[in-house]
Design brief:
alpha+beta, Phosphorylase Kinase, domain 1, Aminoglycoside 3'-phosphotransferase, Chain: A, domain 2, five-stranded antiparallel beta sheet, two-stranded antiparallel ribbon, 46% helix, 17% strand
Length: 271
């Protein structure tokens, strides 16, 4: 994903220069030398701004303010919550505070990918408990996904189980059932799930595989302007592991071969 264009806001010390020199210097003082901005999450001109940054394979959130006293107040809240055991990474939790720089009026916290990675790890464990070799391959995919978490997109209500069998043509519009996995997330949560359906149908309903592939191709063509390709691939790989874990849990006849095919697709998508 391309780094967003430099942002200039004279009221924010870290962004007073369009070159972001003050921001880079402050991050270096906090041990994040060479960090790059990967997404602008929110900007209230003249008041505050939130950025997603990457330093190596790690992701962080940077909150920039016009007034350093707000940084100190917010960091104090983080410290109180951490002291109460509420910054452990296990819910309920706040992001762990990485550091504060009052000269640049900014605060850095860790970034949670939270539920998505936790879900994927659970899929890997299910596969591994059924077949160690397949679990090892699925675990390698998990490692790649964990090392390349896409920056968060616009978050909204998502279905969470957006399969072909959950969408119906009602004549005057679409209908959707089975909302039991609903969640907040970027649009690629559902788009990635749907894009993985062709592979699932190929292994479970081979006589419908060609029709499923045509349907998914049409779907991807229509949503192409709405999704980020890298983020779509990430969630597609996650969905493929989810489908493989279904097979590992239920173990129908020939499940291992089918699961291996799905994991192989996830390996390709995440490479």
């Amino acid at each position: 994903m391309e780094e967003p264009a430099p942002l200039e806001d004279p009221a924010l010390p870290a962004l007073a220069s369009g070159r972001h020199d003050a921001l880079a210097a402050a991050l270096a003082r906090l041990g994040l030398r060479g960090a790059r901005t990967v997404a602008l999450l929110k900007h209230h001109p003249g008041s505050r701004c939130t950025l997603a940054i990457a330093a190596g394979t790690d992701r962080y959130v940077v909150k920039l303010f016009a007034d350093a006293t707000k940084v100190l107040a917010l960091s104090a809240v983080h410290q109180v919550l951490a002291g109460a055991g509420l910054a452990s990474g296990r819910g309920p939790t706040v992001p762990r505070l990485i550091g504060v720089d009052t000269d640049a009026a900014l605060l850095v916290t860790e970034m949670y990918a939270a539920h998505a990675l936790e879900d994927i790890h659970r899929y890997v464990c299910t596969i591994g408990s059924a077949a160690g070799e397949l679990g090892g391959r699925a675990g390698a995919v998990w490692d790649r996904l964990a090392a390349d978490i896409p920056p968060p997109g616009y978050s909204d209500l998502r279905h969470g189980s957006f399969y072909l069998s959950h969408v119906f043509d009602l004549g005057d519009g679409p209908g959707v059932i089975d909302w039991d996995s609903f969640r907040q997330g970027p649009v690629e949560v559902d788009a990635g799930m749907m894009s993985a359906m062709a592979a699932r149908w190929t292994v479970r309903r081979p006589h419908h595989a060609a029709a499923a592939q045509r349907a998914i191709a049409a779907f991807l063509n229509e949503v192409g302007d709405l999704v980020d390709p890298a983020r779509l691939r990430w969630y597609r790989a996650a969905a493929l592991l989810k489908f493989a874990s279904y097979l590992a849990r239920r173990r129908p006849d020939g499940w291992a071969v089918s699961a291996a095919t799905l994991i192989g697709d996830a390996e390709i998508v995440s490479a």
